[in-house]
Amino acid sequence: MEKTFLLAKSNLRKNRGTSIGLFLMMMIASALIGVSFLVFFDLYPTAGKEADRLNAGDGYISIRYDLDGFTDEKIEELFAKDTDQYYAYKNIQLGMCSLPFGNGNVAIDLTLSDRSTFTRPMNTEEIVLEDATVEAPYIYLPYQFYTGGGFKLGDTFQFDLKGVEHTYTVKGFTNVAYGGCNNTAMFSAVVDDASYAQMQGQAGSHAEGIMVIYDLKEGVKDGSFLIAAQNEILHVNPKAVTSGYALGRVLSSRSFMALIIAVSFLVLTTILSLAVGMMLANSISNYVKENMKTIGALKAIGYTGRNIRGSLIVWFFSLACIASILGVMLSYVLMPVFANIIVGQMGIPYSASINLMAILVPILFVTLFTLLVTRISSRKISKIQPILALREGIESHNFKKNRVALDKTSLGLNTSLALKTFFGNLKQNVITFLVMGFMLCACVIALLMYENFARKPKVDILTTEVCAGVLTVDKESADELLTFLQSREDVKNIRNILSLDIYYKDEQALYTYVMDDCSKMNNQNVCYSGRLPKFDNEVAISGAFAKSKGYKVGDEIPLRYGQTEYKFMISGFIQSVNNDGKEAILTMAAAEHLFDTSLPNASYWFDLVEEDEKCSVNISNTEQIFEACKGQYGAHVINTLNFYEIMEGATTTFKSISVMMLTVMCTLSVIVIALILYLLIKSLIYHKRKDYGIYKALGYTSGSLMLQTALSFMPAIIASAAVFSVVAYYGANPYMSIFMRLFGLMKCNFTVPVIGVAIIATSLCVVAFFLALWQTRRIRKIEAYNMLVAE
Amino acid sequence: MNTIIETKKLCKTFSNGGIQQHVLKNIDLTINEGDFTVIMGASGAGKSTLLYALSGMDRPTLGSIEFAGSEITKMSTDEMAIFRRSNCGFVFQQVYLVDSMSVMDNLMAAGLLVSKDKKALRKKAGEILKSVNIEESLWNKFPTQISGGEAQRVGIARALMNDPKLIFADEPTGALNSQTGKAVLDTLTAINEKGQSIVMVTHDITSARRGNRILYVKDGEIAGECLLGKYVSKDAERHEKLSAFLVKMGW
């Protein structure tokens, strides 16, 4: 054993450059796996853990508009039998408000509470950041306003409610389970007592609300409980407006983007780890070849193959152990950078904790992989005879063809010699080709995310339908406003779309879009199997939900609204990331089987005739249409939604995430390519040191030899860039689809910008060339004389 | 007779672990055009060091070397490389052909450094290869596919490609058997007879007989010089003169 350690120590000392290169690659692989696992197993479950800590129970039901009859006794009667515990409290429920968020606005229900929210026993709000010096009127906003909404302590927070401006100073940010994220349909804020009382006065009794947080008894199903409880609430007071969300649905809405990012990150790190693994295997194999003479000498003086293999295993395994441990530590150092951005979307305070999966998996993966590769690569050591090893193994030259004959080629000298080196170094070039290709694919996927989440957000995967704006108008003026809109030259594709919860078997609420003509939908991609409904007996329904209940396209599914139930035929499956993946689309005629569609207010969704490249212009143009409608119909216009403004606000966090992903991937690609070229060129120079000495003796300058060597990698690099650009361009969507299916997105037509792919491919080629040139600088140190004397 | 190389106070010192070893000591030397100069000496005397210093492959510690009118000790590494292209040819003890190149390519790789006319270069390479008795059937073979003697003659052919002012040969027969070694020496003699200047290091008396001027290096200095005149095969008097010189030098 002592001999083995002695040899391992000597190896480490002699091969510092290789050791450092491999060490860095092992560390990068380990850090990346560590970060992925931290995102998956530490950050992603944080939403659930925090909800437990804040005692958020299993869900909530809100009651508002008319609270007559909802005494404490009645609430107890409604909730006590099915729950282990529940807690009811009053708050102000302002309904849909347009709130400043990120670069735009977010249209979301807003609830206001007083300071008692910090001490209540269930759904407690916790102050994360606070400026005690801020005086009333102040507001505590959900933490997401800080992480993703662009607000700081002391900022002014202003919103409009029924034409009245409300202005507060931001005193703090809170961690809250329900109403903490722009994806959960509600923001929950806390104001000072005076402001609370003032808002109660202004908003009136209809804004008074009751929130009931419940913790269900074992065996009680969320869905059926919610439906039953809401029905009973309406029995108590039919004028009351009620809504409810199970915790699971809130958590899923809150963290689906974190999951998408975690998966995307894992996708990228898998590619990266493959590249690093391949390079690791090659480097170890090269080491064995380079040191064949030493191996022969050691065998000649009595070392056994086992001793020598053991020393290699000890050397690489020690490297892997230290590198992977440092890699895991590095993952904890890097995690806050990634976490901050993901937290921006989740709105939950997070600090990485000791996570066994994130610590053990990278260490085990890197060390065991290294062990395996070392064992396989060093097998030949046991078999080789000392004399053969001393002759540096059996040289299996295969010069059947003289590639790029210098007397015949029309190429220049440097190019010709570079090509000769290329053909003589095919194995290394195959590795360069693959590694470069993997990195290019990773960058293209990051580019895809940037293009579709940041530059031109692909809103059709985030929402069922897209438009420029939505005008909700009362029944009285609905027809007139429609005529008014139709007469405008800047508006097109007007469709009336109602949205409401429809139920499946008293169990599950399906968020349903009811529209006059589904063919007018902009987002036809929403239906990935079958087709959108045409006739009055058809429904398109979330595929994941339908499949979980055993339904296929063409089957009949019973749907209920109130007391009316009707069996619809499933015309197609739709994809949805919102509403816990439970959505449906009906035509107006079909919805007539369930309720009178003329009763609800009309919601006109419309598009702009001319959509500008700049989002700000579209926001302004849409706003002008709203103003014109309001000017014409005044209070009949109940609500407006500027879709551009909302998407601008909602995608703020996605933008920073995708920009980060692109930056990280490009940087990592350059680092990995640099490391790989370092190891390959180091090995190449070692193998060709005699040739370089001869060339120098003949009169070749260091510069021309460096150029030739760097150029010799370019065919593989350029070919890889060309081939993998095409592969990535056509493969990115199917590849992403595999992972997006996890979120119910079965059909993702992400845009992959050709120019972007070309820029990345060209940039990586140029960077790789200069990196290769830089790595070949050690050729300068090769003195023809020293080489000749040494030989 | 023109002088190709002239050295003044040429010194070379190696430093190893703080211990300095003076390998060449104040050597003043001239190499003349058309000469077949042989440098002899015991192992470690400094003969190879002198050869590589003269050729610009290694830098002296002190002193100057004027090669074909240029002071080469002041040249940068790259300037020296460019200078070597057309002024120096090398024949080494180990063959040192580029294994991944064919025989023809090895010559072309040298020739293309000074000319871009591939057609002319190929013709010239063919002529040189023929002149050193390398048959055309071997031109597209790789160095590992030909014999050691043939490979060494290809090395000589490569050294001749750019019409160098001087060929430096370092123990060119050291790794060959007597028969193939003789063929190589015959080739060197033949090109010298055509006017090619040669400086050869050897410790083999048979090889040394080919030279017309013998320099003996001892402890880093030129200990003596022997002029033999034009080489004639089986010249007993020449052999005796050389033997006497070497005995005198302590060979």
Can you describe this structure?
- The complex is a heterodimer of chains A (791) and B (251).
- The longest helix of chain A has 44 residues, at 247-290.
- Chain A has four domains: 1-56 and 258-396, no CATH class; 92-198, no CATH class; 412-456 and 651-791, no CATH class; 461-649, no CATH class.
- In chain A, strands 1, 2, 3, 4, 5, 6, 7, 8, 9, 10 and 11 form an eleven-stranded mixed β-sheet that branches. In chain A, strands 12, 13, 14, 15, 16, 17, 18, 19, 20 and 21 form a ten-stranded mixed β-sheet that branches.
- Helices cover 53% and strands 20% of the residues of chain A.
- Chain A is an alpha+beta fold.
- Chain B is α/β, with parallel strands linked by helices.
- Chain B has a single domain (3-249), classed as Rossmann fold, CATH 3.40.50.300.
- Chain B has eight helices and ten strands.
- Chain B has helices spanning 47-54, 77-87, 103-111, 118-131, 148-160, 178-193, 205-208, 236-249; strands spanning 3-16, 19-32, 36-41, 62-67, 70-71, 88-91, 166-170, 197-201, 213-218, 221-227.
- In chain B, α3 packs parallel to α5 (148-160) and α4 (118-131) packs across α5.
- The chains are: A alpha+beta (791), B alpha/beta (251).
- The A-B interface holds A 395, 397, 399, 402, 405-408, 413, 417, 420-421, 424, 690-691, 693-703, 780, 783-785, 788-789, 791 and B 48, 52, 57-58, 77-78, 81-86, 88, 90, 92, 94, 96-102, 104-105, 108-110, 112-113, 118, 121-122, 125, 140, 142, 144-145, 158, 162, 170.
Gyration radius of chain B, in Å: 18 Å
Q: DSSP strand (E) fraction of chain A?
A: 15-25%
| SSE order of chain B, one letter for each helix or strand | EEEHEEHEHHHEHEHEEH
Q: Largest beta sheet of chain B, briefly?
A: 6 strands, mixed
CATH superfamily of chain B: P-loop containing nucleotide triphosphate hydrolases
Which stretches of chain B are poorly predicted, pLDDT < 50 over at least 5 residues? none
